[in-house]
Amino acid sequence: MRQTFLKILTFLCVAIASAQTVQVSGIVQDNSGVPIPGVNVVVVNTSKGAVTDFDGGFSIANVEVGATLSFSYVGYVTKTLKVTDSSKLTVTMQEDLAQLNEVVVIGYGTQTKKETTGAVSVVGSQDIEALKPQRIEQALQGQVAGVNITTQSGSPGGGATISIRGISTNGDNRPLILVDGARIEDLSVLNPNDIESINILKDATAGIYGVQAANGVILIKTKSGRKEMPLTVEYNAYGGFQQTTRKIPVLNATEYALIVNEALAAGGNEPPYTNIASLGEGTDWQDQVFENAAIQNHNIRLSGGGEKSTYSYSGGFLTQDGIVGGSASNFTRFTNSANYNLDFLKNFKLVTGIRITRSNKRNLPENSNASVLFNALNMNPTLGVRDANGDYTIADGLGAEVINPIAQIDDNYNRTKIFRLSGNASLSYDFLDHFSVQTNIQFNYSEVKGKIFDPVAFFGSGKVFNVLDEATVTLSDTYYRDYLFDNILKYENTFGDVHNVKLMLGSSISKETGEFKGGTGYGLPSNDPADATLENASRVQLFNRNTGRYPTFDSRLLSYFARAQYDYKGKYLFSAVIRRDGSSNFGPENKFGYFPSGSIGWVASDENFLKDSKTINFLKIRGSYGIIGNSRIGAFRYLSLLNGEGTYIFNNQEVIGTASGAIGNPEIKWEKQKTLDIGLDMKLANNKISVTADYFKRRTEDLLVVPQISGLLGVGGAPYVNGGVVENEGAELVLGYTNTFSNDLKLSVNYNVTYLRNEVKYVNTDTGVLEGGAFGIGQPAPSRMEAGHALGYFYGYQTDGIYQTQDEINNSAVTNVAPQPGDIRFIDQNNDGVINEDDKVDLGNPIPDATMGINVSLDYKNFDFSAYAFASVGNDIVRNYENNNPLTNSTVYRLRRWTGPGTTNEYPRVTGGASPNALFSDYYVEDGSFIRLQNIQFGYSFSDKVLENTKINKLRMYVSANNLFTLTKYSGYDPTASNGAPIGGGIDQGFYPSAKTFLFGINLKF
Amino acid sequence: MKNIKFKILAFFALIAMYSCSDDFIDVKSPDPNTEDFFNTEEDYQKALVAAYDMLQSTAKIYQLGEIASDNTLCGGQDALDTPGFQEIDDMIHNPVNAQLRDIWTWMYTGVNRANYIMEFKDKIDFPNKTSVIAQTRFLRAYYYFQLVKWFGPVPMAIDTRIQFGDQFDIDRTPVADVYAQIEEDLEFAAANLPLTVNETGRITKGAAQALLGKVYLFDKKYPQSAAALKSVIDSNVYSLLTTEAPLMWENDHENGPESVFEIQYSDIEGGSYDCFYCLEGNYAIGFNGPRGYQGPFFDFGYSFNVPTQESFDAYEDGDIRRDYSILDINQWLADHPDASYDEDAGYEQTGYFNRKYIARKGDLNLPDAALTNPNNTRVIRYADVLLMYAEASAKANSGNPTSDSYEALNMVHRRAFGLPVNTPDPSDYAGLSASSFEDVILKERRLELMGEGHRFFDLVRMGKAADYIPGFQAPKNNLFPIPIQEIQLSGNRWDQNPGY
Asked: Domain SusD-like N-terminal spans what residues (chain B) (predicted)?
C-alpha cells in the first residue's frame, strides 16, 4: 500500500514536472519600439504558435518552460528565445539588412529581392489599401516605374489599359496577368481588398512565362490565412460620393444665339434669333447631366489556420453610381473568395483557392459622338430640359447625332452582367532531399450577359437614336472557359557551401474557348423592359443565322521550359531560361518557336571594398536579355474560312449564303520581342535611401500586322502578315526615402520616373503605313503606324494661323474646299501650290515622353497621412467632341473667334457654310501633359488603451479624397482619356471623366 | 513509407504525361475551309447567294452616278460631309477617294464570289448546275460592267479567284477584252435562264438580254445591242405601267411588269455604319431624303443627291414624270400643313429631293432607320429597254431612226403625258435627223430616268458630258481615277487613268 502510494506520488510528481507549462504572452516590436503585426511565433519542434496582432501582441497557452520560441517576419532577422516563466515578453526584432529578404515572385517560384536579376516591381497591400481603388489598375497608376495606365472610361466599372514599358505592338499590348497563377483579362472582377501583393516583371526574365509575357507579367497574390493563427475577422468599409473633376466651359444661351446668328449669316442664311436679350444664361446642360454620385464598399474577411492548414474567406460588395446619369450608369459587384491550404505530409502539400464574382454594369453611351456628354456639350442652351407640355425638348436642327441628353439617360436600359468562377489547385511533393515536383491547375469560367434594349423612342426627326416603329432587344450570352495546367520538376542544391544551384523543368498547356450566343428580337409588344425578351419578339435573328452555329473560338498553347540558376555565395548570380512554345494560332509549319532568355547579377556590396561602407549599404548591378514570343491573334488566321457575310433577299425573305471571310496566311509565325535591361539596386545612408535605376530597350520584330490589302482581294478581310519592327527605349528611376525619427514619427517618400521613346522602325505593307482611329464624320483615319514615327502618331495638316484677308488666300495654296478670310491656313509642305493628302505631317502622338509618380506617407502617433500624385509629360490628345453643325453649341473659345482682319490669328471664324476648318489639323491636337493629385488620406487609429476592454484589436477611421485636382492645359474633360488602341488611341470623343471621390472609411479587426 | 512515396511520384508522373503531346495544339476549325467546299448542290446555291449579295452594295453606284451628273448636287450636312461625294459632284475628284475605293473593292468582291463558283464548277454534277452557272456568269458580267464603266481597263480574272499574292501579278485588261468577256458571259446567261422565275429577285433571261443590250450599247456594237433589246421587247413579258406609273416607285409596286432587273432590299434586318456592304437595306434611300422631315408619306433623310432647279425645269408642262421624279418640298409642305423639315440644315439644298429614291413611311425602321430602307433599286426598267432599243436601232442604221426606233421612243414619251401608250399621237417624235434623234434620246433618257443614276454614263458614252456637267474635263473625266492606294497595294504596276 505504501509502495503503491509512493509510486502514485512519483508518478504525479513526474506528471507535474513534465507538465510544467506556462502561458506565454508579449509584444513584438522593431528597434524603434513600433509594434510589428503579423509576426509568426512558433514553439520550435511543436505545432504550437501564434501570429502577432495589429499591436504586435501574441499569446500562446501551455508552453513548456525551456521550450524555444522562434519569431520570424519578412524583412527582419529571425529571432529565437527560451521560455523561462510566464512573464510578459517584449521582443525586439532587428530589421534585416536592407530588407532584401523581401520575397519576390519570379515565375514558378520565389526569390529574395537580393537574388533577383530581373527588373521586378512590387506593390504591397499597404499601398493598395491606401489608394482605395475600385479597380486594380488604379493602384498601379504612377506607383510603378515603367507601367502606364490609360483610362478607357471614368464610368463606374469602366476599363483601363495597362502598358508596361511602352507600346510594343500594333496588336494586343496587354500584359499577362496571373491571379494566384490563374490567368485573368478583366480586372474589374477582382476585389482590391483581397490582394496581398502585386509583382510586375518588366524585362526578359518574364520570359519564363513565355507566350503572352512579351508585354510583361503582372502577378497578383491574394491574401490567405497563416498557420497556427486564431480566427481573425476583419471588416473594412468606406462610403462617400463622387463628382466631376471638370466642366468644359461652353456658350450660354445669349452667347450661343449671337454666334449662331453670325454663323448662319456667314453661310448666307437668315439669323434665327431675333430677341437675344431675353435669352439670359439658358440651360447649362452639363449641370443637368453631372451629379454627385454615391459610392460604398464593404468587405469582410475571416482567416486563420491550424497546425497543418490555413484558411481564408473574403466577401466584398461595391456599389457605385456614375457622375453622369447616376444610377443609370451604376456598377455593382459582389466578390467571394476562399482559399484553403493543407499539408498532407510535411513534404506533400495542397494549395487551393476559389473566387466567385458577380457584377452588373449599366452602360450609358460614352466616348463616341453618341455619348451623353457629347450631347450635353452640343445641345442648344436656349432650350429647357422639358417643354411646356412636360415632354423632353427636341434638339431640332442640331444634326442627326445630337439629342437631349437627359432624354437619352432616361431611355437607357443597357447593361452587362458578369458571372465569373475561378479556381486553382496545386500539389507539391519534396523528395530525395533536393528534388520537388509540383502540379498546378487553374481554371476560369465566365458568363457575360449583355442586354441592349431599344424601346420605341423619338428624339426628333432624323435622329440616329430614334426607334420609330418597334422596340428591339439584343441579348447576348458569351461564355468563356479556360484552363492552365503546369507540371514542374525542381532540383535545388548547394555545393561546398558557396555554389548554389537551382534547376527546373516544366511543361504547361492551356486552352481557351469561348462561345457567343444570343440574338436580336424585333417587334416587342411594349416599351416595358420586362417584356424585352426574345420570346416576346415577333421576329428573332439569332447570332447563328449566318452559319447555323454560334461563333466560337478555341485557342491553345503547349510549352516546355527549363531554367537554370546559379550563384556563387549569393554574390554572382546567373539565370538562363529556354522555352519551346507551341500555339494553335499558327499553321502546321510554324506552330513552335524557341525562346531563350538569360540574366546576370553582381552584388557589389558583398565585395570586400564595399562590405564596410557606411554610405553604400547595398549595391547590385544586373542585366538581362531575352526573346519572348507573341501569338495573340485570333484563332485560325492561317486558314481561309467560309465565315463571311453573304445574305440576299429572294421573295422578300432573307436567304443566307456562304462567303469567304478573312484571308488566311499559312506563313504567319511568332512575333518576337527582344528585350534588354541593365539596372542597379542600391541602398544608402543606413538603408534610409533606396535607388533603383534601369535602362531598357525592347525591339519587337516580325510584328503580326493586318496590312491594308488590294481591293482585288475583296471585303472578307486582310490576312495577318509578319511585317514590322517597333522599338521602345527608355529609362526608369525609383527613389525611396524612409526614416523613423522617433517612436511617434515615421516618414516615407517614394518617387519614380520613366522616360520612354517609341519608334516604329519598319512596316512591311505595300503602303508602309497602317491606319486607325476616327476623326469627324467620314474623314480619313487620323492615326498611323509608319517607320520613323511613334506608333499611333497623329497625321494631318499643320496650321499656320488664320487667313486675315482674301489677298492672303489668293497668294496661298488651298484645299479643295476654298477658304475664306477667318479660316485656318494650312502649310503647303511640298510647295506644290495645293493643300492635299501630300501635305499631311506628324502632329504628335499619344505616348507620353515621361511618366512619374510621388508617394508621401507620414505617421505621427495615432495619426497617419498619405498623399500620392502622378504626372504624364508629352502625351498629345485629339479634341474630337465638337460637332460642326452650325446650330450645335460650342466651347467658349468661340467667343475669341476671328471676326475681321487682325482680330485673332488663333481661332477661326464661325460659319455654317463651306470651310476647311473642320479638316483634321494640329488645331485639334493638344498637349495632354498633366499632373494629378490622385489620393490624399488622413487616418486615426484608436490606441490600445481605448480598445482594451473590447474585443476589437484594431480600429482605424479615415477620410480620403481621390483625384482631387489635375493640372493640365488640355481643354477636354480628362487628359488620361484614351481607348487604349495602339493606332487610334488618344482621341477624345466626349470621354467620361474620372470622378473626384470623397470617402469616409473604417478598418476594423477582431 | 517508401510505398507512399512511390505512389505519390507515380501520380505526378501520370498527370505530367497528360500534358506532353504536341497534338494538343492541333485544333480543327469549326467553319469549312474555302478549299474544301462545293460538295453538294446546296454548297453551290449558298455560294451563289453570296455572289448575289454584292448587288446590294451597288446602291452607292447609282447614288454617286447621279451626283456625278448634272441632275443633282451632292448636298449632305456640310461641305465636308463625305468628301469623296462632294469632290465628284464638283468634278475635282482625285485618286484619293474613299468612295471610289469602296466601289472598286465591292465590285471585285462580287467578281471573286462569282469566280469562286466558276473555279469549282466541275467538282460535282447536279441537275440545276446550268442555272447556277448562268446566274453566276450574269453576276460576274454585271460586276465587271460596273468596273469597266467607272475605271476603264481593269484587272480581270476569269474562272479563278484573285488570291493573296495574285494582286502583284495581274495587269489591267484592255477595255475591249473586258467587254468581250462580259458579252460572252451574258450571252451564256441569256441562253440558259428562264423568262420567268418562281423566286422574286432571281435573274431572268430578260434581265440578261437587257443588260447585254446595254453592254453592247456602251461597247458601240449597235446591231447586237438592238437585237438583244428586241428580244426583250418580243418576249412580251414586260410592259409600261400607265395609270399606275406615278405609283411605280412605291414599295408595293416593286418587281412589277415594268421591272426587268431589280436589286432586292429588305427592312427586316438592322444595320450599322460599320459595314455598308453588309446591309440588307438600301442605305441610299435614307441618305437622299429631306433632312429632319416630319409628316405624312415620306420619311427623313440626310439631304444628299438633291436635284437642281434646272433638272426640275427640264420637264415640259404636262409631263407627269416631273412630280413623281422630283419632290418639290416647299410645294409639299404647302399641301401638307402638318409636314416640316430642317430647311436651314444641310449643304447645297435646292428645295428638291430625289423622289424615286427617298424613304417612305411605314417601313419597319429598324436601327439604324437610315440604313434599313427596303426600297429596291430598279436597275433596268422596260422604259430604259425601249429607249435603249430606240437608240441602238437608229445607230445600227447609221444613226437614222427606223420606224421601230420611233415607236419605242414614242411609247415612253406618250406614257409621260398620260396618253395611250400604243396609239400614235400628234405629239409623237417624227422626222428627226440622226443628230437631233440622239439629242432627243439623251433628253428623254434624262427625264425618264431622272434620279436613277444613268445620266452621267449616258453623257460620257455619247461624248457629251463636257457640254452638260459643270467642271467636266474630257477626256480625263470620262473615267474615274483608280484609287491611289489600290495602285500602291498592287505593287505600283498600273498606270493611273490619264489626267489624274
From this structure: 23-217
